[in-house]
Amino acid sequence: MYSGGYLSSGIVLVRTMLEIYVKSYYLEFIAKERGDNVIDYIEENKDFPSFFQMTKELEEVKSPKGDSFEGVFSQFTKNYLASYEKFSLFSHGKGAFLKAYYEHEKMSYNTEQITDVLYTVKGMFSTIAMLFFIIQGMHEELGEFINKVEFPSSK
After folding, report:
1. 141-to-20, 112, 114, 116, 145 alpha-carbon distances in Å
2. How confident is the model at residue 43 (pLDDT cuts 50, 70, 90)?
3. If we measure between CA atoms, which residue out of 76, 83, 20 comes closest to residue 48?
4. Can you name the residues that pair with 3 across neighbouring β-strands?
5. 154 inside domain
6. Where are the alpha helices (DSSP H) in 31-136?
7. Taking the alpha carbons of 7, 55, 48, 39 in that order, is the dihedral positive or negative?
8. What is the DSSP letter of 3?
């Protein structure tokens, strides 16, 4: 984040995590279900759809019981938190946003903003870890992980 006049690359890392998060769920719940070869995506023989197309498709997934992701992925899009766009300003922007930080050294994140980013990262890491435990059939390890991880309570 911003501290002592230096801007870290933390937000670029969060954007990368967000992309990996969405792509992992896309591979498991969309590509596999369609019969696509997942390795083709990983080895770049087949392109992933845009971030927004992936989130849209993931939001349309329904389990046989009718369960869905209910906003888990759409929350990152323009219509909601716009996290992807905000994080993209750092990694793909023309520098205007970063320039503002360097020109106005008193600009910084408050504690609540930093905490929100950290909870987002922890949530993404925790849920992607649980997805991988399930995919790999590691149910005992999944149970241990769930028992050890502290999840923030709903506000």
Report:
1. 22, 33, 30, 28, 6
2. very high
3. 20
4. 6
5. no
6. 32-34, 38-42, 51-59, 83-91, 96-103, 111-135
7. positive
8. E
pTM value surpassing 0.85: no
Pick from 89, 112, 83, 120: nearest CA to 7: 89
109 and 1 Cβ atoms separated by less than 8 Å: yes
Instruction: Report CA-CA distances (Å) from 64 to 21, 23, 61, 91.
Output: 23, 22, 10, 39
Has residue 22 been placed in a domain? yes
Rama region for 152: left / alpha / beta (φ>0; ψ in -120 to 50; rest): beta
One-letter amino acid for residue 43 of the chain: E
* CA 102 to chain centroid: 27
Taking the C-alpha atoms of residue 5 and residue 107, their distance in angstroms, rounded to an integer, is 9
For residue 81, the one-letter residue type is L
Flag whether 153 is in a domain: no
Question: What is the per-residue pLDDT across 112-144, written as a single tens digit (0 to 9) for each?
Answer: 767 777 787 888 888 889 999 999 999 999 999
Write out the residue range of the structural domain in which residue 121 sits.
2-148
What's the number of domains the chain is made of? 1
Tokens representing 74 are 């759409």
* Six-digit token string for 136: 């790999």
